[in-house]
Write a structure and sequence with these properties.
It is built from 18 helices and 18 strands. Helix 4 crosses helix 8, helix 8 packs across helix 17 and helix 13 packs antiparallel against helix 17. It starts with 6 loop residues before the first helix and ends in a 10-residue tail after the last strand. The radius of gyration is 22 Å and the shape is globular. The longest helix has 23 residues. By secondary structure, it is of the alpha+beta class.
């Protein structure tokens, strides 16, 4: 099946929907004896320790999130900058020790805290680091060299000569070990690949902007040569996308005529891995075969016209300026809010600031320079001062929220969020929905990856913006068709990609003696 046969994307999406009855008839039990490791561990490779004295910036978080407008000055990352990028995007920010083991808290949110996303670095000679292919190990904050030498040409050829890669001194490759998430979520894991890499990507882009380092996401590339370079089999482990870092160090020459396979040993992920055919099928159906196909694939998204507004418009009122904590401070404080205080509200200026910061745009080879490209933002507002409760659509061309339906929908908000109280107790629920028909027509099955990745990254920006304002946020799953039905007719023929709830965290009460 080729990328253009879009029946595969529809089949996968429809087969992995949550419904009222699918949740109640669920019989899957977690096999705790077969729980996967949260890290990829290589045997016999010496760690290259990354510096712990991370370079701090003074860039406010809300300013860094708006990366499309931020000036890029640095041409190449040095080792200290790389350490900062890796730590604040995919590093361990906190560890709590328990008698039964340790709990690790990461810089970005991940479904089920299962951390199935790995980062690989492919670079030329950098200040403090020789050219090579490296794996980042969060468990000991170190790089391990998989190949010695400059292999950036493999990425350039696989992408069909994508300009940002051709001039980048370094690139990060995001990859997933499917089983580390499928242990709990089974076939739905392929959605989570782009949700979870998207939240990491949101952090990475903000940190890169704070360091004034150019960064661009590349989804148009052929997987096979990149997976071979990294030693991934493309079935249990596979690359997801690339991020070009820096500018001004052109790649010279083409890829090597032959590249020996990596024969590196790793610690088994768990005693037994279970393969889900739906994941393998969807990944293969959305893969590209060559650099030439990748070059044809990339480009502007399809036009997604909307009918004229039929409800009242509420123009965004974001806070003036971008005064907030630095992006590093916000990442260290960020978490997934476990409980919202239902009795408290946020201001319309705060919601406006979150919406504007999260939707400014993502530098990517499949998205417009500004704004959302493949998704639309729908909101369910419960407790926002200065804004009537109800259902809304964000009209990005007018920077305004259109009221679709007024009313108190707290209870239904909790239901839509898979009957989780957080969806009802939040001040607002932000849903990203994609009109998949034209997206798949333009980009093929790979458009499904693109829509999920944009949504996951926007969701990650919502996280950062909410915490920058002193509020809380958490990602939630949902009843797919019920969300579409609730926001219709505006959401007719859409598919739900991501949900983030924003509100006021409820602090645990201290017990009296």
């Amino acid at each position: 099946m080729t990328n253009r046969d879009t029946a595969a994307a529809w089949e996968y999406h429809n087969a992995t929907k949550h419904t009222y009855w699918s949740v109640r008839l669920e019989t899957h039990q977690l096999d705790w004896a077969n729980e996967p490791l949260p890290f990829k561990l290589y045997r016999g490779l010496e760690p290259i320790r990354l510096p712990r004295d991370l370079t701090a910036t003074d860039v406010p978080c809300l300013e860094a999130i708006a990366c499309p407008d931020y000036p890029a000055e640095k041409e190449a990352p040095d080792l200290a900058t790389l350490a900062s990028l890796l730590y604040f995007s995919a590093g361990i920010t906190k560890r709590i020790r328990y008698p039964g083991g340790d709990i690790y808290f990461r810089a970005a949110a991940c479904t089920g805290a299962l951390y199935h996303i790995d980062l690989y670095l492919v670079c030329g000679d950098l200040p403090g680091l020789p050219a090579g292919v490296y794996h980042f190990g969060p468990h000991d904050f170190a790089l391990r060299r998989l190949r010695e030498g400059d292999y950036r040409s493999v990425l350039v050829a696989a992408s069909g000569g994508e300009p940002s890669l051709a001039e980048a001194p370094a690139a990060l490759v995001f990859a997933s070990t499917f089983w580390r998430n499928a242990w709990k979520y089974r076939a739905r894991t392929y959605r989570h690949c782009f949700w979870d890499s998207g939240t990491i990507l949101a952090n990475l882009l903000a940190i890169a902007a704070a360091h004034r380092l150019p960064a661009r996401v590349v989804l148009g590339y052929a997987e096979a040569p990149v997976d071979h370079l990294l030693g991934l089999d493309g079935r249990r482990e596979a690359s997801l996308f690339l991020v070009a870092l820096g500018k001004g160090a052109p790649v010279v020459g083409g890829p090597p005529e032959s590249l020996p396979p990596l024969a590196l040993q790793t610690v088994p992920v768990s005693a037994r891995q279970v393969e889900y055919p739906a994941i393998v099928a969807m990944h293969r159906a959305s893969s590209l075969e060559s650099g030439a196909e990748a070059a044809r694939w990339r480009g502007e998204p399809p036009p997604l016209p909307l009918p004229a507004p039929s409800g009242p418009l509420f123009s965004l009122q974001p806070r003036e300026g971008s005064a907030s904590e630095t992006v590093e401070a916000v990442v260290l404080r960020r978490g997934s809010t476990r409980r919202f205080d239902r009795a408290r509200s946020i201001g319309f200026d705060e919601l406006s600031t979150v919406v504007r910061a999260a939707s400014r745009g993502i530098p990517a080879d499949f998205l417009p320079a500004r704004g959302l490209g493949l998704n639309r933002l729908f909101l369910l507002v419960h407790a926002v001062e200065g804004l009537p409760s109800g259902a809304y659509l964000y009209r990005q061309e007018a920077e305004a929220l259109e009221l679709l339906r007024e009313g108190d929908f707290r209870t239904y908000g909790g239901y839509l969020a898979l009957e989780q109280p957080l969806g009802a107790d939040a001040c607002a629920d932000l849903f990203l929905l994609s009109p998949l028909g034209p997206v798949l027509e333009r980009f093929g099955n790979r458009g499904y990856r693109a829509a999920q990745l944009e949504a996951g990254t926007v969701g990650g920006k919502v996280y950062l913006a909410a915490y920058a304002l002193g509020r809380g946020a958490t990602g939630l799953t949902f009843y797919d068709d019920d969300v579409v039905s609730f926001f219709s007719p505006a959401a007719r023929d859409h598919a739900v990609m991501f949900l983030t709830a924003v509100g006021v965290p409820r602090r645990a009460r201290r017990r009296s003696r």
